[in-house]
Amino acid sequence: MGFFLETLFGGLMAGMLYSLIALGFVLIYKASGVFNFAQGAMVLFAALAMARFAEWIPKWLGFDNLIVANLLAFVVAMALMVVLAWVIERLCLSRLVNQEGITLLMATLGISYFLDGLGQTLFGNDIYSINVGMPKEPAMILEGMFEGGLLISKEDLVAALIAAALVLALALFFQKTSTGRALRAVADDHQAAQSIGIPLNRIWVIVWSVAGFAALVAGIIWGSKLGVQFSLSLVALKALPVVILGGLTSVPGAILGGLIIGVGEKLSEIYLGSFFGGGIEIWFAYVLALGFLLVRPQGLFGEKIIDRV
Amino acid sequence: MLYRENGQFKTSYAADQQIFPIAQDRLAIGLLLLVAFVVMPMAGSEYLFRAVLIPFLILALAALGLNILVGYCGQISLGTGAFMAVGAYAAYNFLVRIDGMPLIGAMLLGGLTATVVGVLFGVPSLRIKGLYLAVATLAAQFFTDWAFLRISWFTNNSTSGSVSVAGLNVFGMPIESPVAKYLFCLTVVCVFALAAKNLTRTATGRQWMAIRDMDVAAAVIGIRPVYAKLTAFAVSSFIVGVAGVLWAFVHLGAWEPAAFSIDRSFQLLFMVIIGGLGSIMGAFFGAAFIVVLPIILDQVPHLLGIPLSTATTSHLVHMIFGALIVFFLIVEPHGLAKLWSIGKQKLRLWPFPH
Amino acid sequence: MMNDMPQAVQEQSAARRTGDVVLDLQNISLSFGGVKALTDISFDVREHEIRSIIGPNGAGKSSMLNVINGVYHPQQGRILFRGEERRRMEPHMAAAQGIARTFQNIALFKGMSVLDNIMTGRNLKMKCGLLANALYWGRARKEEIEHRVKVEEVIDFLEIQDIRKTPVGALPYGLQKRVELGRALAAEPSLLLLDEPMAGMNVEEKQDMCRFILDVNDQFGTTIVLIEHDMGVVMDISDRVVVLDYGKKIGDGVPEEVRANEDVIRAYLGTSH
User: Fold this and answer.
1) For chain A, where are the alpha helices, taking DSSP H only?
2) Range of the structural domain that residue C76 is part of
3) CA B285/CA B312 separation, integer angstroms
4) Contacts 24+ apart (CB under 8 A), B13-22
5) Which end of chain B is more exposed for a tag (fewer CB within 10 A), N or C?
6) What is the pLDDT of residues C227-254, one digit of tens each?
């Protein structure tokens, strides 16, 4: 039982991070109908920027304070993500308005390749570390309830809390602020939103910036845990089944989907993995999403798709 | 001789329905085939065959297969590498497990196995569209990556996880020298390109394109979406599977699953986009572009005396491909093939533009 | 516009109404979620007639066509086609039974030429399989050319010879509508559903389209179900008219009856004129 719970916790925490990356997908999809394949590349790009600026800024300015360095690096990296959002909107999205979903998807695949190349050209292609002072040692909890207690990673716990807070903040931002309302209006109908004076271009820059922010936070957390390297870009591919499971347009769906996939992956690896020969984490999420698609194509919380003729 | 079609009147529908209705085009393609089959084998260097022509031909074949699915039928696939892998490993197993299995037989059986798997993963396309299908094909990609790595039966219990084939021959002719490999690939590619062209210009191709352009209208005029989509998946994965066999057997000789990773899938999709969605010729343009560009980027700085590290080159290649994808999607979704036909259109009237 | 149609033609068309019932719709109800699109609608279509469906926007006319050719599945009601009751059917099955149609918003295949678009209409009659087509030899080649001949007849009929190789996306609206009609005709349907074939056309284009519709009806004996907003056209070329309003049937009969129907005048004619 203790072991099961440990696995479950591990899964929930990994799932929270999937949710965070998935949230970026959902935000962009809701506001522009773009299935942003580049979210993973954005995570890598942001994490690389964060890692390298935290290393470079103290050297350039000649001080030695981890917290200040991290803060400055965070600001610079965030600024970079906003610039990126603006450039993507200007050079790419605004020229692809009203195109089909597949075209947009392929365009973001192009953006993703470009970002991977650019990030590694600018920031290098080694493995870099991000040290934002996450606790590294594991902790024992609930020692009274189980024999030997439950061993959980403090780092995961902190990360999950940050992710949860961010998810909540974004949900509030969407529901309560006027920008959030504008975003939802755009999501419902591009043209109608434009006709009541919501500037589509500005909204898209904002959404991509917010997605950039989500990518940066996700990048920092993953990066601090695993080191910043190219494979981060691939971890983000896991967010695809998450959004499929949760429904492309649903913020709660992204969260729940992330948790389900996180937990499912860990549990299946432990309890089914040996049966299949191990390593099934690679495809479990996808096959789960695929099976789900066949039963309920719109996902857990997505809107039902009705074809009109 | 100027490029003109004046005076070439078609007196029958058969003449109008030729692949190359203009005489000059037929001449040009004839010359191209002559160069490819006769001049190249005499003049080409080993490096040219090994590093440029053979990869180009095989990837063009795979891109051709993918283009049938994406460009003609409008069903996106991010799992092409997986279907290449299925073809390669299936053919390998047919070859090593069945005594006396000829290369061509193994190749076709490999293709057929890829067809079966392709259709299987194509079934979700009957219920889901576009973005969702992308995820279904990614599932195929990750699942096969895993299966060929972990299930040792597929690799004939090879301890290293890598498998190899040797002593290939067709009807007793050895496929060992670069020239022989090149000619073998060239023949296979020509046969499949012709078959694909035939499919796309007949009822089958029109069904695919109808589904691509507007599936409800297609159903209303009596095209069964199930049949059209699944045949596209079948034909596409058959060709892709055969390309996988060639890639593994002829180009690599010894390989492991990484040869067919998701990067391969993306690379092929890029070829299709850059070359031209919905064009047989586009697959060749795209493959040529994507095979040749990294080689040029590798060589030119050396010649100019500014050596770039291999890592930098590969990042540059990434950036250029990425930018080009976006560029082509915005400016010319039908890719290089469309630019080519626009050029020809201009040439028809040259030097008088009106 | 076509009020000066010869008396003889009108009489002739009136005589045709005595044909057998080919399509009988009984108590059809259709809803999406909670929204009722059609409520308890019954009417029939007779062999060789031109049957019009009219009604204000949102009255459920297009939904009605979608029910007839299997795009939508009504929750209630029976559909008898040539005397046989239809269970759940998909659009391609309707096509196989000889029902063809055009759409309100043009539904051509934008990436294909006019010729290829009309060739798709022959799809059901082309029997060659994958392998034969891949070889394009013998049977497949012969089949392509045979059907090309048929398609050229349709192209001649609709007078669009000069644009046969043009991609349909590049054509003006009126011609696109004509190509769409061509695609439906290429299937040699026994029942043709036309959804606002003249919407957005100028007077000359409308006249051309009317001529094509009447010719199809006369020459090939095709039964036509027509949705149209132009009352002049409807009253002139229809044999019988059914009137829908808010998903309910409020009138049914020959044009004179419908014109005199109080409900129809109130719901439709009264407001629009």
Assistant:
1) 2-32, 39-61, 66-91, 101-123, 154-176, 178-188, 190-195, 200-226, 231-235, 239-246, 251-271, 273-276, 281-295
2) 1-98+191-273
3) 25
4) B13/C145, B13/C148, B13/C149, B13/C152, B14/C141, B14/C145, B17/B201, B17/C144, B17/C145, B17/C148, B19/B197, B19/B201
5) C
6) 988 888 888 899 999 999 888 998 899 9
For residue C57, the one-letter residue type is: N
- Cα dihedral B168, B174, B180, B183 in deg (nearest 10): -70
Same-domain status, C90 and C115 = no
Range of the domain at A156: 2-229
In a domain, A242, yes or no: no
**Interchain contact C134–B (C-beta under 8 A):** yes
Residue where the block lists tokens 């294909």 = C112
C157 in any annotated domain? yes
C-alpha B33/C-alpha B250 separation (Å) is 21
Could C71 and A309 be called an inter-chain contact, meaning their C-beta atoms sit closer than 8 Å? yes
CA distance B313 to chain C (A): 37
Does residue C218 lie within any of the structural domains? Answer: yes
Same domain, C203 and C74: yes
For residue B85, give the nearest of B39, B31, B41, B144 by alpha carbon.
Answer: B144
pLDDT for A142-173, tens place per residue? 666 666 666 777 777 888 888 788 878 877 88
Q: Is the pLDDT of residue C182 over 90?
A: yes
Domain boundary among C188, C218, C236: C188
Structural domain total, chain B: 1
Taking an 8 Å cut-off on Cβ atoms, the answer to whether A121 and B312 are in contact is: yes
Cβ pair A1, A223 in contact under 8 A? no
CA distances (Å), B344 to each of B4, B22, B25, B142, in order?
10, 11, 10, 42
pLDDT 10s digits, A192-250: 777 887 787 888 888 889 889 988 998 888 888 878 888 777 777 788 888 888 887 77
User: Which residue is closest to C107 within chain A, CA to CA?
Assistant: A309
**Position A260 in a domain:** no
Looking at the complex, report in whole angstroms how far the Cα of residue A12 sits from the nearest Cα belonging to chain C: 36
The owner of tokens 């716990």 is A157
Nearest to A106 among B138, B145, B273 (CB): B273
Question: Which of C32, C62, C103 comes nearest A306 by C-beta?
Answer: C32
Residues of chain C positioned with their CB less than 8 A from the CB of A306: 32
pTM confidence score: 0.88
Q: Are B87 and B110 in contact (CB under 8 A)?
A: yes
- Distance, in Å, from the CA atom of A136 to the CA atom of A225, rounded to the nearest integer, reads 9
CB B61, CB B243: distance < 8 Å: yes
Of C159, C188, C217, the residue at which a domain comes to its end is C188
Beta strands (DSSP E) in C72-112 are 76-81, 84-85, 99-101
The DSSP annotation for B86-128 comes to HHHHHHHHHHHHSTT--HHHHHHHHHHHHHHHHHHHHGGGGT-
Terminal-to-terminal C-alpha distance of chain A: 54
Q: Sign of torsion, CA A103 A106 A111 A112?
A: positive
